[in-house]
Design brief:
This protein has 277 residues and is α/β, with parallel strands linked by helices. It has a domain at 5-124 and 159-182 and 246-255: 3-Layer(aba) Sandwich (Rossmann fold), CATH 3.40.50. The protein has twelve helices and eight strands. The strands form two sheets. The protein has a six-stranded parallel beta sheet with strand order 2-1-3-4-5-7, sandwiched between helices. A two-stranded parallel ribbon has the order 6-8. Helix 1 packs across helix 7 (159-171) and helix 8 (190-201) packs parallel to helix 12. The radius of gyration is 19 Å and the shape is globular. Residues 3-241 form the NmrA-like domain.
Length: 277
Amino acid sequence: MSQNTILVIGATGKTGRRVTARLRLLGEQVRPVSRSSAIPFDWSDPRTWDAALDGASSAYLVPPVEIGPIDHFIDRAQSVGVRRVALLSGRAADSWGDSAFGLDMRAAERAVHASSLDWTIVRSSNFSQNFSEEVLLEPLLRGELAAPPGEVPEPFVDIEDVAAVAAQVLTTPGHEGQTYELTGPRGITFGEAVGLIAAASGRTITYRQITPGQYAQSLTEQGLTREEADTIAEMYVLMERGLISETTDDVHRLLGRPAATFEDYVIRTAADGRWPA
């Protein structure tokens, strides 16, 4: 087994599948794993970890909701020869206070900080693709998105930029011990975002601000558990405090080009027919 394999955990997810494709294009040997992959991986089942880690020198980690297993996984990874990890985290993780979201992110970051691995943390703003690959899509297709954010702007970041940074971190030197904060080039409100999607797609879509409690209830009606719904609603409350509204130039600095705009994402996604007219 090659000792230069890059393990991608969560390879069927939004970032994982994009990181996998980019690494393959770079000629890297990649092992993409998920619960349904040929080599299955489940954070909650340590019996699946050894086969996934076998021969891996680096790993891309999207941490689990239940953060406990990541400490044990990091220990296991070190013991079998993994040397480098890139951890996906949330923007300004140390500013989220004692929210469930903040506690989970900081616990994952502490786990890699405490290791002897060459670690890099990639903190990301909310993805632009949340409007086309997440719970925000269905309301848009119905013609109205109702959510808590008001007039505080969010510097949505394109997942493709996040994946490009992660692939670079895993394949080039100089990123050890670094924490990168990834944003788009400017902040826009949710109302502005919906307006851009409506214009590019030709659909009639409106945005309506509702309370966090109302939003959590709507998420449970879409099939999320109450705990999941409350965590997401809590995140929007913290966003409204302006904790992650500022932009950074980390994408530009790392990739040597400007971060994609929200308009770039909207045009590309509308052309793909994700929001059919």
